Amino acid sequence: MGTVHLIDHPLVQHKLTLMRRKEASTNSFRRLANEMSTLMTYEVLRDIPMQEIEIETPLERTTGKVIDGKKVVFVSILRAGTGILDGMLTVVPGARVGHIGLYRDPRTLGAVEYYFKMPGDLRERDVVVVDPMLATGNSAVAAVERLKECGPKSIKFVCLLACPEGVAALHKAHPDVPIYTAAVDRELDEQGYILPGLGDAGDRIFGTK
Ligand code: URA
């Protein structure tokens, strides 16, 4: 059975509501997407492995905790994933970044891969896949499937907004991948848009419509 972590912090929910409004300008939509993803990263990485190291303060020797292992990898699903990547890098500036290019076939709504570039040593790293919207789930399922071929230590999926259909699809294909989202909306429409949703995240982030 898969897990959904609903990030219901008031700051995250407030920003999501502002993003949903059709009046939000490209500038404010993009800024809010950045801010939301920064805040959500705290929850996403809450259980990241730590190790204790010895340090010296100006007064004495002591121990402190630091993040263990190789740097985490944020994998952005192009193009809309880019819109939440910077926010996550704000709090984990040393993270590595991978990109997966998938486009949605307008007829089948299925995911077609056109780009794949990852850090080399994925077997020793934890991966966080980022895409603002978990709609049909086709891109998420395809991205995780492709990443599993590289054998990372773990995979998580982060989006700003999900719907029951997308959650079910990702859980069915990859029950081991936890989903982190600020909301699970009512439903998907026949064009593959989340309702009530926030529209086309890519177009709103980049101002292409
Ligand atoms: N992708 C989007 O950007 N918005 C949706 O509602 C669904 C998929």
List the helices and strands and how they pair.
Elements: E1 4-6, H1 10-20, H2 26-44, E2 50-56, E3 61-67, E4 73-78, H3 82-91, E5 96-104, E6 111-117, E7 126-130, E8 133-134, H4 138-148, E9 154-158, E10 161-162, H5 164-173, E11 179-181, E12 187-188, E13 194-195, H6 201-206
Parallel strand pairs: 1-11, 4-5, 4-7, 7-9, 8-10, 9-11
Antiparallel strand pairs: 2-3, 5-6, 12-13
Helix pairs in contact: 1-2, 2-3
Bound molecules: uracil.
Structure description:
This protein has helices at residues 10-20, 26-44, 82-91, 138-148, 164-173, 201-206; strands at 4-6, 50-56, 61-67, 73-78, 96-104, 111-117, 126-130, 133-134, 154-158, 161-162, 179-181, 187-188, 194-195. By secondary structure, the protein is of the alpha/beta class. The chain has a 7-stranded mixed β-sheet, sandwiched between helices. α1 runs antiparallel to α2 and α2 (26-44) packs across α3. The radius of gyration is 18 Å and the shape is globular. The model has no long low-confidence stretch (mean pLDDT 95). The site of uracil has 10 residues, from α6.
